Amino acid sequence: MSVDHIHLRLLRSLLVPLLIFLCTTAPAGAAFAAAEELPARNVLVLHSYQKGFAWTDDQSAGIEERLKGTANPPVIYTEYMDWKRYPTQGNLEHFYETIRFKYQNIPIHTIITTDDAALSFAMKYRHELLNDAPIIFSGVNELGVDSLPDKRNMTGVIEKIDAAPTIRMAMDLNPLLKKVYVVFDNSESGLSTGRMVMDQISSLNPGLALFPMNRMSMEQIKATASALSPDSIVLMTTYYSDSTGRIVEFDRFASELGKSSSVPVYHIYDFALNHGAFGGSLISGRMQGQTAADLALRILKGERAGDIPVVTDSNVRKVFDYNELQRFKISPDKLPKGSEVINEPFSFYQTYKVLVLSIVAAFAVLVTFILVLLFYVQLVRRIRSNLEKSNERFSLATYGSDAVIWDVDMSTMIYYFSDSWYEVLGYARDELNESRGGWRDILHPEDAEQENRLRIQHLEGRSSYYYAEYRMRSKAGEYKWFQARGKVLRNAGGGYIRFAGSMVDVTDRKGYESKLQTSYQELESTYEELTALQDELLEQYNKVVENQALLQTSEEKYRLLAYNDVLSGLPNRLSLSEELEQFIEEHSGGHAALFFLDLDNFKYINDSMGHTFGDELLVQVGERLLSRSDGRSKYFRFGGDEFVILFKDVAEAGEVIRYADSLVQGFMEPFQLHASVVHITASIGIAQYPENGKSAEELLKNADIAMYKAKEAGKGSYMIYGQEMQQYFDERMIIENHLRSAVSNNELSLHYQPLVDTGTGELWGFEALIRWNSPVLGFVSPLSFIRIAEDCRLIVPIGEWVLRAACRFTKDLQNQGYEGYHISVNISVIQLMLDDFTEMVLSVLEDTGLAPEYLELEITESIFMESFEAISSKLEALKERGIGIALDDFGTGYSSLSYLKQLPITTLKIDKSFIDSIDTPNNRSLASSIVTIGHDMGLNVTAEGVETPEQLAFLERTRCDKIQGYYISKPIPEKEVAGWVAGRMAG
Questions:
Q1: CA 924 to chain centre
Q2: Which pLDDT score, from 0 to 100, does residue 349 have?
Q3: Considering the entire predicted model, what is its pTM?
Q4: Boundaries of each GGDEF domain copy (predicted)?
């Protein structure tokens, strides 16, 4: 054995223990125990509250973290009841239908519930809907668990609310503590939590003064907290709405309270961390979720739920915010033992102490290693010199040969080609990235697959050596043929080490072979051409027959597309016209009825829920109509949300009435669209043949007129065409035609009816009322033209004109010295549904210079009920700018008080019908109750239609805020307002 080899073996013997030492001194990686694999199971997670609610999200995160962390995680299904925002029977029924529909074919093996509502639902319906699966509850307190009627086949995690540890911590940190301000809301859970916390504090230390803050608004809470003395703290529980009923985001309110408070704000739940929480003994939703998931995994492994004890002590953590400690000048050293501190400044040494010491030790070893390496530098140089000589010999051998030498290192898949390969093809070395397989890009596309197949065949041991012929593209663009041979070298275990061989340029040989093949093919093709001529003639004949069949099929397809609606599949308008004309031609002495249906409020469904949702609804309407077919009726989609029914062979008028009643009743049943339930009605116009028309055009026109009359009668009803409807329709068209030029011709004007503050007797402002004096029609009542303007959408430019003129008028009054006057303007639902409504209102205020707090928008109650989701956000944005929102004609609608609390309004307007009848005790009590309701909700109340001193006296006694009516003044033309105001002030 040579000296060099001895030195190399000695070097390896030193390197191996050195590398082992370096590996052992590096920080140890986390050991992952092989989790026991579980069979695939389905876990249903039911949340009481909505996604996005911090408490619910924390529990959900803990559950998913545990379940997905197993080796064989179960399938997780998650549902949200949204009970905090919608605690109604309707929501419960909808949630029941959702669970029944979605899980009718899915076996549920375990149910995890968060909070009380979901637990109650699961206990009530798990036998009926959920496979009698065991239940694991989370987020339920001790009282809730004790009150469960049946605890079999269930276990869970008790949410133990205990404010005592937090109060002890606060007293340790501030020995002067005497006052505790407790924040909770007026919801059922909020009140129970608040009472529980205050009882716990009283039991712990009766000397502490407790101040509940549930009767304060958000602004009052923040203002009170900002002025507290140093002997006080704020303790915040859950918080969803303030005393005025406003819904708040917990994170935002907690952050604002923490910033404004002059004393520490302690919490009882850890989702307040990083949102203004000072700290405390905090209940962790994530820990409860993790514990519940651990219990579920035990059940999935085979344990019985009833045999697993309920967990009561695994969901609390003592946590404090470093930034808050610094703000109130409290050292972390004073915190109770075992406390966590979040947001603490980063310390590299303390965090990575073991790593630092390991690196120092490794550095010392590396210095020793370098010294050893220097000792063997000379040895490496001698080895390199020997390698260079060996390479020279190899290069001379390859240059002297016509063959190309190629080689592949199978461990790195790096290719090597001798210089002759580059000379033959004309490329520079590494021009093709050939060492990384780029040479495959110049293989002829027809040869690449065969070359790869032969290579794999040899590497898999199915051939003794590799042999292939293929073409490669030279740099000049021509393809050259190569004959390649090679063999793979394997190690003792059968693994690949090296794959090498040679290739020879055989382009000339392939050229001769190609010429011979071409000559043979030319002879063969001549024969084939002669035999193919007969086949071609036969094929052309067959194509003629085939084309004739295709033409007939295409004609049938185009006719189907032309006469049927693509969306619903029903016959379309063109099909209706032909059907009517054919019926009239063939049944000149017969009787029929044409029903024209228009879906009510369909545009609002499209605007609020999307056109895809609307299209699905139209499809279901078509299907429901078809299900009512009795053989005498045929259904058509006329266009948009309009459908037409041709009812043939009518024997007497009663049949038409009965069929119309059945159509109206058919729309009483709601439509199920995915997870939504939609209630719609249809307005139906009926024209009878031949009484109401003897042509298709006349029947359609008269049925359309009757349909519009049905809509005006209240929607969800039907009307049979009569001659008086034609006169009404003609009058309507005349009004619409003249109304189109009313704004541009300055035919519109505004009258202003004063509103008086009953407390001070001073003028508050005016309500703007539109008037139209047409040079052709004369004075037209707003009751006549406003509805027409809404139907044809002229209300959009007219409404903007009214708003702009009223704001400009009010600003002019203020400039004349009448400061503080407000203006109230009525708004149509058509305007509110526009995407740019909010921007339009703000633009008008900016253009006229009127401050937002002097503008009040009047909205009818029916507008909210039709399109609450679509318009509520717009009005909320305007309200935040200071603009008043008045609910007009209150008491004549049908919304519940719980629904009314969610509306973004500032004022209730009592309808005139209540004021007219206050001389009777019952109506007087009702009007007084409306004022009380408005004040309890934090709203101003305005009475309309005040005409007598007795009415005024009664409203003053009930503390109604504002009044308007003929007792104060009738509506005043714009030019006379300034004089009227001056006269009133002088009087």
A1: 47
A2: 60
A3: 0.40
A4: 590-723
